[in-house]
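Fold it.
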Amino acid sequence: MSGPNPLERAVLAWPEAELQSNVVALVKALRGRYFHVYDSRRSVPGYPDLHVWFPNCRHPVGLFRELKTERGRLSDEQAVIIEQFRACGYDVGVWRPRDWVSGRIQNELREAAR
């Protein structure tokens, strides 16, 4: 079994900003909206990077996603908030470049936009 091809290797090396840029571009292409805290130093510690929603209200509250590099680790605050959001029934999770390569991000966004 061979490893990732050169394009996949490049995506797997994306910094968080590059992952976010590609996710936001897809959200816009799907006619969705998003919110990203401009300066996390002035927001609630651990709050997810992106809040995405679509006008169809299929997910009335939207999707909350923390973005991480392949090796990035969740802080304790991030892990607590993710679990609290999940307990409230929110669609919350973590996306990494591998999720772009696998198509998971694209699939989740397309499903929410339907």
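Helices lie at 6-12, 16-29, 76-87, 97-102, 104-113.
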